[in-house]
Design brief:
The protein contains 3 helices and 9 strands. With 159 residues, it is an alpha+beta fold. The chain has one domain: Nucleoside Triphosphate Pyrophosphohydrolase (Alpha-Beta Complex). It is globular, with a radius of gyration of 16 Å.
Length: 159
């Protein structure tokens, strides 16, 4: 059987005052907006659509911060930093509550370990090092971490 993966995006949206947008997902708890890329969609198109559908806000997409591989569900997530462009947050089926949160307090809201890992990387982004992480869920276990773009990261030999 050919391999199949689900591709998704997520975005850490900052407002001009530095606060970030978080939503309360009925399945995963507090998180940043995210969702699957639909057939024929680009990553950035899916990111803009998902954020608008979940929260009602428009964004400007910034840098790629991380690539995450959930091996439990064959899910690949591309994480981006974003800026709030327009719109007021509105509730949806995927956002039971929405809040602009001080970044220093954001991690306290997150219970899901994979969501926490992504958010930690996004909050710590140094402008050049993109994280690549592989993990399992149920129970959560990080399997592999690699910093793309970091000059001090050891090279992975060909096998």
């Amino acid at each position: 059987m050919p391999p199949t993966h689900v591709v998704a995006t997520c975005g850490l949206i900052r407002r001009a005052d530095g606060k970030i947008l978080m939503n309360l997902n009925p399945k995963r708890g507090w998180e940043i907006p995210s969702g699957q890329v639909e057939s024929g969609e680009t990553l950035l198109g899916a990111l803009r659509r998902e954020i608008f559908e979940e929260t009602g806000v428009q964004i400007v997409v910034g840098p790629l911060v991380g690539v995450y591989n959930n091996q439990h569900s064959s899910l690949i997530i591309f994480a981006f930093l974003c800026e709030h462009a327009s719109g007021e947050p509105a509730l949806s089926d995927e956002a039971l509550e929405i809040a602009w949160v001080d970044p220093a307090l954001a991690l306290e809201r997150v219970e899901h370990p994979a969501v926490r890992l992504r958010l930690q990387d996004m909050l710590a982004f140094d402008g050049r090092t993109v994280m690549y992480r592989v993990y399992h869920t149920h129970p959560f276990e990080e399997i592999e971490t690699f910093q793309l773009g970091a000059s001090d990261q050891p090279r992975v030999p060909f096998e």
